[in-house]
Design goal:
The chain has 165 residues and is of the alpha+beta class. The chain is 28% helix and 29% strand. Strands 2-1-4-3-8-7 form a six-stranded mixed sheet. β1 and β2 form a beta hairpin. It is globular and about 35 Å long.
Length: 165
């Protein structure tokens, strides 16, 4: 079967986007793996996010740039401090929703101590440190009972913000 030449460029662009997505997915899994072994994953960090009706894997710098215009939220079951992987939430109004991807684990530990991420090299710890290095003052808060999961029931949200109170 002969494919017209004018169809090939769009096919090549689609393949290129697919390879980029595979690399981002792998980086997302590797990020969680590094955190598991207590290695700072900030340099290769990729997180799966949804915002403005889009889905993407963003680097740490891309995510903190996005936080200049909207708060970040991670959903978690109300009885534990790890990101939820079963809620089915795909968007969060006026916020960037960070979703647990891959193997989960310590990278998605959301425990806070005095309003600061507690687990070294967790996603929110990497974000917190990067924001502080940029001269910003991150604030972390817990919003209770913001949704539900068929697996875990009530969901809470950890919200990261750099906006003034």
């Amino acid at each position: 079967m002969h494919t017209p030449q004018n169809k090939l460029p769009s096919l090549n662009r689609a393949r290129s986007r697919s390879k980029g997505m595979q690399t981002s997915r792998r980086s997302g899994i590797a990020t969680a793996g590094l955190a598991h072994f207590d290695v700072d994953p900030s340099e290769i960090m990729r997180v799966h996010v949804a915002f403005d009706d889009k889905f993407a894997f963003l680097s740490l710098s891309e995510l903190i740039s996005l936080m200049d215009r909207m708060d970040m939220v991670v959903l978690k079951p109300s009885f534990m401090h790890y990101a939820d992987r079963h809620s089915g939430a795909f968007q969060w109004p006026n916020r960037v929703l960070v979703s647990a991807y891959g193997i989960g684990g310590v990278f998605y530990d959301l425990a806070l101590s005095s309003g600061v991420p507690q687990k070294k090299n967790s996603a929110i710890d990497c974000i917190h440190r990067a924001l502080v290095l940029k001269g910003k003052t991150p604030r972390w808060s817990l919003e209770e009972n913001v949704g539900s999961s068929q697996v875990f029931g009530k969901l809470d949200a950890i919200v990261g913000s750099i906006k003034s109170a």
